[in-house]
Structures
1.
Amino acid sequence: MASESDKIKKRDLLDRDIRYLKGVGPKKQALFKRIGVKTVKDLLFLAPRRYEDRTKIVSISDVIPGEFVTIKGRITLRGRRRLYGKEGFGIIVDDGTGWIEVVFFVKNMQKLFRIGDEIIISGKVEFDKYYNKPIFVHPEYAIIGKNSDDEIIAGMVIPVYPQTEGLDSRFIRKLIYELLKEDIHLTDYVPEVIRKKERLYPLHEAISKMHFPDSVLEGERARKVIAFNELFQFFYKINIKKEDIKRAYPFKQKGELSLDFIKKLPFSLTLGQKKVIEEIDKDLEKSVPMQRLLQGDVGSGKTVIAIYTMLRAVENGMQAAFMAPTETLADQVFLVLSNFISGLPLKMELLKSSTRSAKRRQILGYLSNGDIDILVGTHALLTENVNFYKLGLIVIDEQHKFGVLQRYNLWKKGDEFTPHLLLMTATPIPRSLALTLYGNLELSLLTEKPPGRGKIETVVKVEKNRDEVYRWVFKKVENGEKAYIVVPFIEESDFTKKQGMKDLYNMYEYLNKMKSDGVRIGLLHGRMKPLEKRSVMEKFRDGEFNVLLSTTVIEVGIDVKDATLMVIEHADRFGLAQLHQLRGRVGRGKKKSFCILIMSENTSQEGMKRIKALKMYDSGFDLAEFDLKMRGPGEILGTKQHGFSGFRVFHFYKDQDIIEKVRDYVKLVQNGKLPLSQEEKNKLISLREKLKEAYYVA
Ligand code: ADP
Ligand code: MG
């Protein structure tokens, strides 16, 4: 029993705040937070950026300023020393080939060094201009046979950690060194068969080798083993187990509904759309449920494809569900769908959280007896009492806004059959990343836009040109164009005041002062009731308003064909994907459009980079690739939905080589193709349980 409570204590230790460790106070705690280390476990999993090999000892006579070297010799002199105007002390180290001076500035340190001691010094060689010779300033050192802890510092292979001012690698290494002396329990989820085959260290060993390797190679291998471990857990969590997927109902029948729909479209499909439809048709014929992700830039024409696919379900006697992440978007889609299918013999309903209970009851009734063919909605579709009669297809728009488990919960609503699944996103992610995250999905791409779209010119302006920008915009509006103006905040706050940022209301005042009578401004923001939002949107579409001043609620899905101007205030504060989405609201008709980015004169470097990228690239795919390089995958995807926060060591670029391998191993495990011990099986079950906790919160 004692061992049980011991275990709990150890688990405790890992979850403890980093402050629990000796030598870490509030100041260091804050510094650690900057490099993503909050708990003891975070520290253990802190991956070195690189390794320095200090096992190679260089002769002092060969030392060259500017290089990073390790030397070994005896202390022959010691004394006070002034350097760079600072008071310190120096020692002279001699190895027989020559001598070099080593200077330190820390008080009380002097007594550590005694003449005759043998010492190892590692560090960058500086150049002492005054005496015209090489010199070490505050290098790392180890006095041989003296202080054993110091030997983890010099003369070895040394990991270099991400650094921030005030937190050096030496300190971090000492903390980890002490920590590894404790009896720490880490769960290794990778089954032994795989570990043997891939020659992976057990997790615990990998951790210790990552921090204290015997060679650079060993350190790098250890890091990769940990990345393997993390990826394994990740794929295990996101892949849906085979047992949970039943047969799908194969859509054999190609009927009037879908054929007619295509025939009656007011435009012809692009080649890209045709190709995607072919891919989808092939999937739908199978009794294995489709799991396809359709990636297409804003305005690339995904909705048409979604409708076609839903009609294929209906003509095969099945129901279809369309889930969108916001009420506004669900409204919008419902409206578009209603237009497209008007006159077709089918029944469609809209279900949202705000749907009144009488109406809701009616919808749920019709749904469960099969009288509704297509149900459009928001998260409301996930509710337990939403029961379909025969759900054959699910379309999820802006799928990355939903958690893995939410998607899964909708998917489970198929009764006898598992529904076919079409996921869509207008935030394209690079293929490499898609493969990582959605290893279980087939990918379809829409890379071209429908023909007849006007060009969008992206223009960058600074704040002092604001008046000029709006005079120009209003002139165009008076001549019959429509404009969106986007601001990041609804109301003034201490924050907006301090940052000198515009909010919806003071912007409204400002614009009203400038405008002429021909300019009619509508207001739209996230705190409005859905009905109000809809009415404003309709008025903008119909021309009652010709300027829509809004927060980013218009980011997704809104389609007003004759809007040609998009002004984004404080554009340097928005993320790339968001800016691109906003820009995609214009350029939907034949006329040339403009996207005007207004930014602060003294914007951050990052902000500047984003603005430049936006000006340079039109395509969401190019921007996504750029974004990935700039920020890494976690940021792009939003960690909550993807459990990406679980990655401490896995590095998107360094570990490309193992992504597919790990994914395939997980599939083998999940399909029962590898021999596992009972203990291993239990561990994996507990991993799934964790997933549930993590995702039900959202
Ligand atoms: P998104 O991919 O952003 O969902 P939509 O499906 O909303 O894009 O399409 C944007 C607009 O382009 C819609 O008004 C739609 O009717 C129109 N559209 C779609 N396909 C074509 C096409 N092949 N030719 C011309 N217009 C098209
Ligand atoms: Mg869309």
2.
Amino acid sequence: MKSNGHDAGKETTTEPRESLNFIEQIIEEDLKTGKWDGRVHTRFPPEPNGYLHIGHAKSICLNFGLANKYHGKCNLRFDDTNPSKEEQEYVDAIKTDVRWLGFDWEDREFFASDYFDQLHDWAVELIKAGKAFVCDLSFDEMREHRGTLTEPGTESPHRNRSVAENLDLFARMKAGEFPNGSRTLRAKIDMAHPNVNLRDPVMYRIMHATHHRTGDKWCIYPMYDYTHGESDSLERITHSICTLEFENHRPLYDWFCDALGIYHPQQIEFARLNLTYTMMSKRRLLELVTEKIVNGWDDPRMPTISGLRRRGYTPAAVREFCQRIGVTKFDGVTDIALLDHCLRDDLNAHAPRAMAVLKPLRVVIENYPAGESEECEGAVNPQDPSAGTRKIPISRVIYIEQDDFMEDPPKKFFRLGPGREVRLRNAFFVTCTGFTKDDSGEVTEIRCTYDPQTRGGSAPDGRKVKGTIHWVSAEHAVDAEVRLYNHLFTKENPDDVEEDQDWRSNLNPDSLEVLTGCKLEPSLAGAQPGTQYQFERLGYFCVDLDSTDARPIFNRTITLRDSWAKVAEKK
Ligand code: ATP
Ligand code: MG
């Protein structure tokens, strides 16, 4: 099959697979020295305050991938310490997405909220040890006391309360005696510490809110920094892998473990994934959903795992992408063309082929007998001969793409025009003998003759045609809606905006084009939601979740052209 020309350049310039990334190097060193008794135990710790996105996929593939590679374990832990933003819906979606990516946490599904009692008891221990105190400053006042990167902070006036007073106040915070924000429990570290995260950070805040799991049991909630390392410790995590922005929280992670004298995992930071044309902040993604700029978290334009799935991306392609980008310590932006390339590679190998005409133009084959039809044969997947062949009926009236005909074509246009001959893919040659237009000058119908001698795709007299076009038999066609998706943003960096504008000004008005009245070859009747196909010459398409037999809907996953393969070829 020569028609799409995208098979070239499969080898791209990425790290050789056998070289270890810096985290693997740490792990292998630890295995050598017996640091963790030969154990590798990681975790993926999402906060259930939104749906997972492709950036999370990097973290999932990394954490579960390392566990698989080193015969270790990876926990799924919900970091659910903020009841105001967290919901069961997100918990369920996260589990679906991690499973879909192909990973299994077995019975190790944990919630930070399961540790609230233990975290509370440890906080009491720190108070008793003189390492934590109840502070009456508001969050604004605390910010003022914090100092800056160059100036030390000032100590809270409540810093030197007695242990007894702190224990009493903390108990009353827990009992619900005080309103939101009126008091906090803070670690007593050093207000002059060069790392501002160690300037008496807040451990607990008062929040009278119902938690999606603990209900109304608590009205004080632990902060991320106080919760995370302790949760890792309780689960006996060995390598606690997080993104670079937590690098300067690591001293605090270490401080809490040491102050409590508990099992102490090693925090390791790596660079988060950033992708061109993609926004990955959960807050922004939530805005896209709540402002109805997209149709929900699983809109196929979203970078969410559920959006990618609905769009037709495969778990194998996402995993391959995560493998190829590797893990580093340096922030950068990855070209989305690499993700597309991984996707095309996988779909090319696995997606069955079909013919579909998205913008139909009627063609009458004048010398084909009316009322008759025949079955042509096409490969299900030329990349995989074992997939066999499919039957495609043809008859006197067919549809071709409007784009495949020009009334007055230039020389290099190798498709149909008056007097020109082309091959109908999987069928025979046709020659255009005429066309009709409506009052507005639009071409409404083409007339052709076919050469019965060219069945099978070549002419016995050796004459060649330059073009091959796809088609669908009118009487056999399945009508469908096809949704064409493009980047959601017009700029590589969606945050690149003029001063008086925000990211919304970079939204692509053409990110979705809905086509109705598309014509599909009959083998696509009854295709199940989630199934992927290659529509020959057009791209990869996937049956939408809402598709039914009565109203088939296909999403364009991606076009055929692979710019990444070309980039890699040139290198
Ligand atoms: P926020 O904390 O602002 O809600 P988040 O993206 O950090 O957003 P989490 O649910 O805390 O969301 O993330 C879970 C895990 O996924 C964390 O370990 C985080 O470091 C990792 N992660 C999040 N975004 C990316 C990304 N773009 N690339 C790689 N890993 C990521
Ligand atoms: Mg986070």
